[in-house]
Design a protein that fits this description.
The chain is an alpha+beta fold. It is 12% helix and 23% strand. It has a domain of 77 residues: Alpha-Beta Plaits (2-Layer Sandwich), CATH 3.30.70. Strands 1-2-4-3 form a four-stranded antiparallel sheet.
Length: 154
Amino acid sequence: MELKITTEKENALFNRKEITGTMDSEITPSRADTLKSLSEKFKVPEGNIKIKGINGKFGSKTFRIEANIYSSEEDKDKTELKKKKDAPAPVKQEEAKPETASGEVATPPAESEQPKEGGASSEPAKEEPKEEAKPEEKPAEESKPQKVKGEAAE
């Protein structure tokens, strides 16, 4: 696989070189192979290169490669969009705890650990399941008499 550069444009606004080239290969070159070839050819670290696309035509063994080579990895991170899988996971903020009038954070009251009358203190207290209120069945809706053709409207 040999990479041939067709165009090389310097873009000073974004501190990058915009590269278009071709590569001959039996199969579509992987991004890793293309990245390695570009970094060796331009003598820059792989972290400074963003491959925009590797395109081939049906039946052809020639592939068109578009890439941007940045002067630093910081410039690349500022300019290029990050993929969702590459972006760091968002940090979730803890829920706000209610504060008392004096400015202290309120804590939920602890349950009293007094044993029941006849039970031992080592056994956990069992609560009796409460019967849930069952929804009452609604009576069947009264059906309205259907209009039959020929009847007069009331």
